[in-house]
Amino acid sequence: MEEEWIAGKHSVTEALRSGRTINKIWIADNAQKHLTLPITAEAKKAGIIVQQVDKRKLDQMVPGIQHQGVVAQAAPFAYAEVEELLANARHKGEEPFLILLDEIEDPHNLGSILRTADCTGAHGVIVPKRRSAAVTATVSKTSAGAAEYVPVARVNNLGQTIDRLKEEGVWVVGTDVAATDPVFGNGVFTGPVAIVIGNENKGMGRLIREKCDVLVKLPMAGQINSLNASVAAGVVMYEVLRGRQVRD
């Protein structure tokens, strides 16, 4: 069975708290004790081996990732099914609030989107299996541990998934710089909704754009006419949260 790396204090802590299967944890010799003691205590309760090692070993395990002196080896990330995301909403007695990512390729963007999805109460994120970032150590680190709590579904065909969500009564709202409807004050966000965020460079694909029930745009008052994908997603997610709080 393949294994995955989780790096960083917050990511490892949340993985422990969420009950994810962790095989072993490594902590750098020079790591600050007040940051690592809670992790060591949680690991001991769960019967997980913790080993003190030279920081350079951690650098080799997760090259290029700011691990803060803590790295864990875990079971592969457990992706959810789309039905589980909808069931998550039903269980909470809430209208579905989903995020669909149309070929988001940068793992830092995926991590940031997962973090905001958790903060705004989204019921899950849906990504295509091809040409899309997967949940990796970089994603987990960027999400500050939110990857352990926000269900992520991987699907073969995003277009077919949109059709299925529509059958469930979910409105599909795409973000597009060429749209005419404003994102703010748009009543569409108060009901069952799936927000579509397009690729960092190309935006949404033509087929996905055509399948959206509504297209909205963020107002731009400067010289640059677009935002980073994760920033745009964050603005829209908080507008969904605001609209629902006003409604309730």
UniProtKB/TrEMBL annotation:
RNA 2-O ribose methyltransferase substrate binding domain boundaries: 5-80
Organism of derivation: Paenibacillus farraposensis
Record keyword Methyltransferase present: yes
Family: Belongs to the class IV-like SAM-binding methyltransferase superfamily. RNA methyltransferase TrmH family.
Alphabetical UniProt keywords: Methyltransferase, Transferase
Alphabetized Pfam families for the sequence: SpoU_methylase, SpoU_sub_bind
Source organism, top-level taxon: Bacteria
Name of this chain's protein: 23S rRNA (Guanosine(2251)-2'-O)-methyltransferase RlmB
